[in-house]
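protien #1 (seq + structre)
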Amino acid sequence: MTTNHARLAAIVTAIFVAAALRLVPHPPNFTPIGAMALFGGAYFGRRALAFAAPLGAMLLSDLLLGFHSGMPYVYGSVVLIVLLGWAIENHRTPLRIAGAAIASSVLFFTVTNFGTWAAGELYPQTLAGLGACFVAAIPFFQNTLAGDLVFTTLLFGGFALLQRRLPALRGPELRPA
């Protein structure tokens, strides 16, 4: 297996393992969704794979978990978080990764809760209804943030450790921050 193939296999495997963690019992919203999208965006050299791997992993896990009406917003969030990963692709420092993880949580919270409100099933289609939707979701945000930070640390930190131990996983040199 060539260096590029080994690296690609390791990145894809990390994303699919993260998606599989959605299938084990966990606190509400404490999932690796944001982390795997951020990781994919930051590490895939091929842009198509940066989207395909996290979205494919989500789809496979959703086949087992079941589909729901909010999926377009969840998947849309994944696409936007991949773009955040692109923003740090060449400047992966702990501070930038942490900042991107926090931004991922905020983005996911905003997009998915807007989608809940826009569906018109739970909240009135008014500004007050939108506010009520966001306020009701605040208790779940702490788990989203905690999950994104924990899983981002595991994915980025774990892959950095693997790269140190396995030279075949090292990619091209990064530009200085």
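ok now protien #2
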Amino acid sequence: MISEVTLAKKFTSFWNELLPNANNFVRLINGGLIESCYEPFAHTERKENISLINVLSFKLFKSVIEHEISFGATTESIFKSEYFDNNLSKSLIELERFGKINAFLLPLSEKELKEILLLFKHIYARYHNNIHFMEVSPLFQGCGFINQSEGDIYFPNTLVELKSGERKFSVADIRQVLVYFTLNHFSTKGKRQIEYIELFNPRMGIVYKSLIKDLSENLCSLSPEDLFFEIYSFITENSFVELH
């Protein structure tokens, strides 16, 4: 069993055959189809810490949405709290499976702590109007050789995927959301109504939103249902071991 991220980043032959226009279309997205909504951050000095900063900012957002802490508590003083210490420990454990645990430079600097707060505020500002309808970290039932997967944000008709690195969007980002759509489409329980995909990078201040049917047409000239079936067939009719 593997994660949706591994599927999105590997199996290049499968993806290239299924999505012949993906590379060209992602260039179009980054070249003019994205919306700029915030000024991009200055380059992070200690790039080793970017993934940790991103995870901590999302945990802060989730804590506010799920009423673990109040929005009023999201000031710089929160970094001296037991809440933050606990979430830092949890984040390090979660990231360990990506082999990055020894690369982090701790303690986080004052500038990095401010980045966490600003990333959180950008995410909150964009999506707080949907707070009463929002599901943070929506779970998608596993299928074939893909484990149960966890998205970022769902609210009626829209799935949001956060990509907070120092880059624009990639082909792997598109593949990853297609896996979520596939798992959702063939789910036997908790199936969600999703018509739109939104990619948001709060660090770069850019967003791309599209109807799924338009995205599918641009990537491979298939209907969403046919596209999801092709992905479903690949992950259910093949053995991960045999593919390697």
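The chain has one domain: 4-243.
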